[in-house]
Design a protein that fits this description.
By secondary structure, the chain is mostly beta strands. The protein contains no helices and eleven strands.
Length: about 120
């Protein structure tokens, strides 16, 4: 199993920025496919971005050009830099780790974009 702990959420004005972090337990972090998902009230959880072991990235169309996912294998941490935030980015953001049969989730961190 893997334990994931997110941090960095909060309240930000439209156009602002936040950086989310997700720290993972385990010694094989470098092989995990790491992802960020989000769930807004009344909506299904959706993929925001993911990054594989070779640091190849993929983004949802709604965040392309605004969000950047990255990983630091030495720190067992994945990041989500969010710029030009919009009210529609408001959601609980979840970190995910996948490898083989492993599929772990963090507890989530709230991001609220509002003036």
């Amino acid at each position: 199993q893997v334990q994931l702990v997110e941090s960095g959420g909060g309240l930000v004005q439209p156009g602002g920025s936040l950086r989310l972090s997700c720290a993972a337990s385990g010694s094989i972090f470098s092989v995990y496919i790491m992802g960020w998902y989000r769930q807004a009230p009344g909506k299904q959880r959706e993929l925001v971005a993911h990054i594989n072991s070779r640091s190849t990235t993929n983004y949802a169309d709604s965040v392309k050009g605004r969000f950047t996912i990255s990983r630091d294998n030495a720190k067992n941490t994945v990041y989500l830099q969010m710029n030009s935030l919009k009210p529609e980015d408001t959601a609980v953001y979840y970190c995910n780790a996948r490898s083989g049969t492993l599929n772990g989730w963090g507890q989530g961190t709230q991001v609220t974009v509002s003036s």
